[in-house]
Amino acid sequence: MSNSKETSEEILDRIRHEHQQHQAGYREQALKMYPWICGRCTREFEAKKVRELTVHHKDHNHDNNPADGSNWELLCIYCHDQEHMREVEQQRAEAKPSGPTKPTLGHSPFAALAGAFGDGKTKH
User: Is residue 1 scored above 80 in pLDDT?
Assistant: First the structure.
């Protein structure tokens, strides 16, 4: 339970600390459970570089951490970023309306210029 006199900075620090502890728990489990190899590019990691290996949640739900590790895969930081960018692009594609879209403006700010040059050609 938080103290009512906590500042917003103290609350954020506490939340960050709790989040890091939560992540450390399943990360440590995954690192013990799986070989230190990226699941996408197959790059192998030694102890001094293992910090570049991340735990990716296959269903993208960071609260879904079954003890058997079935929702995890180890990815290097580069492949992990690519995986999340692919998800963002997929969501954008799904959110796009199908078919042509109507302009958002109810008027054309340059409509009055259409006849300003007679035949539409400018003189040089």
Answer: no
Is the domain spanning 8-95 CATH 3.40.1800? The answer is: yes
* pTM, to two decimals: 0.58
Report in angstroms the alpha-carbon separations of 124 from 68, 117, 118, 121: 75, 12, 14, 9
Domain boundaries, the chain: 8-95
Using the structure block, give the residue that is written with the tokens 């700010």: 109
- The answer to whether 2 and 11 have CB atoms below 8 angstroms apart is yes
